[in-house]
Structure to design on (170 residues):
């Protein structure tokens, strides 16, 4: 009998995003490139850090949690980030529009925003973000190292790849 080996746990990359942030939309290119390069060896986790300057970011974070409950969290977040300007102009109606366009239960989104079922998750992310000194978005955390993209995203993907390669090889 041969022994079966279980694959190592994927490397976790926390992506602290504000879903009304245009810089986070630009950061999706890096997220996609990292997923393409590492496949299932990297687990990119969306963490919420709604900024006060974005009026609808907090509701957007709750909506993304509802999308995750319906099995399409990242897909929803990416679709919403493509519409940050519209979200700023039209508000929460955009959250429901995106849900409907993706074939999600928009009525359930509306109910979730009213009943606040995802408030604790978003609040917990925001509190943890503040505790680890997240100040802007996007910010990444990999292997305990915080990489702040709120000021500049230049070189971030390369730094993430450098850390990921070291961890995956070691």
């Amino acid at each position: 009998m041969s022994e079966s080996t279980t694959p190592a746990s994927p490397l976790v990359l926390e992506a602290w995003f504000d879903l009304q942030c245009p810089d986070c939309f630009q950061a999706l290119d890096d997220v996609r490139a990292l997923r393409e390069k590492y496949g299932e060896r990297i687990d990119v986790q969306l963490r919420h850090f709604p900024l006060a300057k974005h009026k609808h970011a907090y509701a957007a974070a709750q909506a993304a949690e509802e999308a995750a409950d319906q099995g399409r969290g990242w897909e929803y977040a990416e679709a919403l980030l493509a519409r940050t300007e519209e979200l700023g102009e039209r508000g929460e109606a955009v959250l429901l529009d995106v849900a409907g366009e993706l074939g999600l239960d928009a009525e359930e989104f509306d109910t979730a925003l009213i009943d606040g079922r995802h408030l604790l998750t978003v609040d917990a992310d925001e509190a943890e973000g503040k505790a680890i000194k997240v100040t802007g978005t996007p910010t990444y955390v990999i292997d305990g190292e915080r990489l702040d993209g709120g000021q500049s995203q230049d070189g971030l993907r390369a730094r993430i790849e450098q850390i990921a390669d070291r961890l995956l090889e070691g």
Q: What stands out?
A: The chain has a mean pLDDT of 92. The chain has eight helices and four strands. The helical segments are 22-38, 57-69, 73-81, 84-90, 93-101, 106-115, 119-131, 156-169. The first strand starts at residue 11 and ends at 17.
